[in-house]
Amino acid sequence: MSDNTQNNNDDSTGYDAGDGYAPPVRHAISSPNSWSIIRGMAKAFSIIISLIIIVGVIGVGAVLWVFWTYGKGLPDYRQLAQYEPPVVTRIHAGNGALLAEYANEKRLFVPIDAIPPQLIHAFISAEDKAFYSHFGLDVKALTRAMATNVVNYGRGKRLIGASTITQQVTKNFLLTNEVSIDRKIKEAILSLRMERAFTKDQILALYLNEIYLGMGSYGVAAAALNYFDKALNQLDLDEMAYLAALPKAPSNYHPIRKTKAAVIRRNWVLNQMQENGYISVEQAEAAKSKPLVIVPDTGADGADAPYFTESVRRQIMKNYGEDALYGGGLSIRTTLDPNLQSLADTALERGLEALDRRQGWRGPLGRLEAGEDVAATLARYQKQLRPKHYAALVTDVARREAQIYVNGKAATIPFKLAFWAYPPRDDDGVRPQPLKDLRDAISAGDIVIVQPPSETPDLIRDGFKPEAHHYALGQRPAVEGAIVVMDPHTGRLLAMSGGYNYADSEFNRAVQAMRQPGSAFKPFVYLAALDNGYAPTTRILDAPLVVDQGVGKPKWKPANYTKRFYGPSIMRVGIEKSRNLMTARLAMKLGMPEIQDYARRFGINDNLPPLLSMSLGAGETNLMRLTSAYGMLVNGGKQVTPSLIDRIQDRHGKTIYRHDERQCDGCENALWDNQPIPDLPDTRSQLTSPASAFQMVSMLEGVIQRGTGRLLSRLDLVLAGKTGTTNDNTNGWFIGFAPDMVVGVFVGYDKPRPLGKRETGSTVAVPIFGNFMVKALADKPVIPFRRPNGISIIPVHAETGERVLPTHEKAILEVFKPGQRPGGQLIDAPSGVNTNGADNGLATQEFF
């Protein structure tokens, strides 16, 4: 055995190991031990490879299992291709000024190509710098976040996330905010799918328009307005960076409550933009040096018309539904003229206040209690008041003046601006003695309303010149009213105010208050007569009238406002002086079915009762309807429908409604270059003959020149109209017009009661109309009412209708249709009365 062993140990070369010669390496590795090692290493490597393959197969299987298990029943991400987020509906005035916005989530959707590149860079730098290179998941960021979270978890620190913008879109649109492994897995799966189905820009557009950025802002466009009152293309670099700082937690970076944290986060975003190469170092430093200045949305381009806007909102809600109104992104162009609306508001406000002052002083707003903070108390009362009305504390009162504290300074109420503050009338309507001592009205500690003297022109009398520290004493009117301004040719509503203060009452008295119009209805009785062949000079008997109303009912005995009778009078005088007896007798002659037809035809009342009292305005209507009816008189008898909306566009700019439905070939040209003017057809229905309408307009001009509206004659304007007053002076009306504008005014208490002794349409409504018209028509050319063809203009006596020379002191120019002449038969004359007036040689008119 030893020999064998020796032989086995011999080197195959024959050299002795003790010779000090090292055998070649190839001989060493070919030894049995070396081969064992090699075989062991190969086996281990094979095992490792096998394990890797097995783990890989298991991993792939696990991934496939996760995709199979969690991928089932996921929301359909492809629906986002047609996704239209709820966006703000905006209502604009006729000149484009913003009136109102309606939205459950205040969002403005902006296409990606309309978003400034720097704003996109800011969000990418802050939220997902690898957005344009990853496939939906940022593996590098995810690995880094996992390693960091292991450390943070051990140290009790907040865990960080690594969600890409794609993942955020997936979560916001398709999943919930639930914090769980399941939700994160679903989020990852959907993100991978979205990246295959959508472009990066499509995903980014969804993100930037959907993300919540605080202060009620959904999307970057709404946030730009809410934080900086700017459109996206107006934002500065520092403002873009601040918006990009908000997605993580808007409340943590509130610009006012947490300004320091907000600035630090904004500057971090700027650093990220600079590191990513989007801005230079100089740009970043310049932007970081700017303070964070917030400018809330001021609506500087807006207009204020709450009653009008609410009527539009109701119409949209009715026609298109709640979803379209609060999330459909409609753009509604209305008919409103902001300048006329402001004038109408001011005229109504001053008219109601002037009437209320004539009713006497009802006392202060309140009292300053012991220990109350003066500034806080005045601020609380101030919230209730209209613009240019101020809550003031009375600090001292003397006989002829009171000292007040208002707007942070001392001021004075002189007696000359508070003389009206006598006690209210008693139950019999008797006015008490005029105020002689200001201490009888107010005392120290009272909280009162005051106004600059410029807002109370009716109080400036006897050459009194207010000084800078003077204020007029005021009070909130108890009486209410409304004013409507309309284009008579189209029915477009140019202005509407339905009450004194929308903040106090949203009840719109222009469209919701049904009231008796009184004498303001009479022109349509006379119009029916004109259409039946009567002339403005036709005489009607003004004498007592008794009408039997049926068994068990009292006799109806109408009377004139003056309680007098005037005998035979021409129709013109009947409308100018608003004679009740003449109107009732004319209605009897025509028949109530005819009167009902005209009320229905002109949209005043669709179901007027067949009672003779209806001819004197006993049938209820509203201001909008009555104003529209007068508009059809001045436009030549054409039917128009009151309209608040010119056009509605959907979120894509497509017009889905247009008030004027006429087709216009050639109107698509943006500029006029001497091409023929397109011929638009007049599709309005003709409700009365143009000649009858013009005769009625002429008679209503007489109301201004010689009748119940003669207060307006001094304005040197071409105006016409009619007053209206109901029984016991409960409602006062004036509906008047110029050639291209019709205006209606209503004044009355919400719970009907007398306006005051001798308060009529002439005293309460006419001044409001006049104050509006003198401003609305300022600097506009004075043009006459448009005269139709085929009529004759003949000078006649204003009271008798007989022909006179143009130089006669009572001469007026009367309008006659073909075949009509001055003079004529008396309607319903008692026997023995001469029915023919002198006609100065002209043929006596034939009557029916």
TrEMBL record:
GO cellular component, one term: outer membrane-bounded periplasmic space
Stored Pfam families: PCB_OB, Transgly, Transpeptidase
Catalytic activity: [GlcNAc-(1->4)-Mur2Ac(oyl-L-Ala-gamma-D-Glu-L-Lys-D-Ala-D-Ala)](n)-di-trans,octa-cis-undecaprenyl diphosphate + beta-D-GlcNAc-(1->4)-Mur2Ac(oyl-L-Ala-gamma-D-Glu-L-Lys-D-Ala-D-Ala)-di-trans,octa-cis-undecaprenyl diphosphate = [GlcNAc-(1->4)-Mur2Ac(oyl-L-Ala-gamma-D-Glu-L-Lys-D-Ala-D-Ala)](n+1)-di-trans,octa-cis-undecaprenyl diphosphate + di-trans,octa-cis-undecaprenyl diphosphate + H(+); Preferential cleavage: (Ac)2-L-Lys-D-Ala-|-D-Ala. Also transpeptidation of peptidyl-alanyl moieties that are N-acyl substituents of D-alanine
Organism: Puniceispirillum marinum (strain IMCC1322)
Superkingdom in the source lineage: Bacteria
Chief location bin: membrane
Protein's recorded name: Penicillin-binding protein 1A
One MF term in the entry's GO annotations: penicillin binding
Pathway(s) of this molecule: Glycan biosynthesis; Cell wall biogenesis; peptidoglycan biosynthesis
Ranges of residues in domain Penicillin-binding protein OB-like: 361-479
